[in-house]
Amino acid sequence: MSALRLSLRVASDLPAVVPGVWHADTLGMGLHPAQPTGYALLDTQLPGGGWPVGALSEVLQPSAGLHEWQLVLPALAQATAQRAGTVVAVAPPCEPFGPALTAKGLSAQRLCMVRADNAKAALWAAEQALRCRDVLAVMAWLPQAQPAALRRLQLAAAQQQQLLWVFRPASAALQASPALLRLQVQGLALPGDASASPGMQVHILKRRGPHLAQGLDLPACHPQLAQALTAQAERRRAAQMAVHATVMHRNTAVLGDTRELCQRSVPVPAMVGPEGREHALDRTAIAMAG
């Protein structure tokens, strides 16, 4: 008991701020340089106010090719405007649309696409890109990467002080990772239109700081465009409801006419075959008419 009291007394005597030391209940500010993400809400929850420079940022999502560029493109546009260097994309699931990247501030001439035949080749290409001084940032799609491989990428990024994103499936959330920052991203559907996703919900799984339970809702496009898409979804839903009401009204009217006809007594002569016997279909027709 005395030893416990002594340790508590010593801890209380420590200064509130120690260079190079961060408290687990606060964000680790100033330990790593950071590149703003372009999303103010996300920056306020990240140590240093952005993506860590010279460290691994791991992004998990249900399916590859959905939100990667929307998430990192604002930071890439700022970084390429401030510093020289190439952005290397290793084993992307689909080729990005050059004019769209240019419109968001990332010149297609600053982007280098690397195709890989297998996971081993993709990992090798990402590590080699990180060892190149002329590379500003690396985006690598490595769904099968193991912690040891990710640790090598982390060390390589630290040596050259580069931005590094590794994209993996959401199922990897239960696996250990050396990433300094780990996020899970999923689409944020429009109200009344689950097929459209103008926004993203980001969950911070790992950071230098306290755990953040709630997700962050981020716009994946310009606010005016998101508003227009929301209005379009509302109009589409209203039109669908109007069509449904019209169909229901018509079905009700037809059902009423059918009941009225069925209540009438309409004699239907039986059709007699050549041998004087009624056919089964004839008996069914008479029963329906009666």
Descriptive report:
- This protein has 290 residues and is of the alpha/beta class.
- Helices cover 39% and strands 19% of the residues.
- The chain is built from 8 helices and 10 strands.
- It has helices at residues 2-13, 40-43, 68-82, 98-103, 119-130, 147-160, 223-263, 280-289, and strands at 34-35, 51-52, 55-61, 86-90, 111-114, 135-141, 163-169, 181-188, 199-206, 216-219.
- An 8-stranded mixed β-sheet has the order 5-4-6-7-3-8-9-10, with helices on both faces. Strands 1-2 form a two-stranded antiparallel sheet.
- The chain starts with a helix and ends with a helix.
- The model is unreliable at 1-10, 192-196 and 270-290 (pLDDT under 50).
Task: Supply the key terms.
290 residues, alpha/beta, 8-stranded mixed beta sheet, two-stranded antiparallel sheet, 8 helices, disordered N terminus, disordered C terminus
Query: Reading side by side through the largest sheet, how are the strands ordered?
Result: 5-4-6-7-3-8-9-10
- Kindly state the mean pLDDT as a whole number? 78
Radius of gyration: 31 Å
The H/E string reads HEHEEHEHEHEHEEEEHH
How many helical stretches? 8
* Through-space gap between termini: 95 Å
Q: Which stretches are low in confidence, meaning pLDDT under 50 for 5 or more residues running?
A: 1-10, 192-196, 270-290
Structural class: alpha/beta
Residues in β-strands, percent: 15-25%
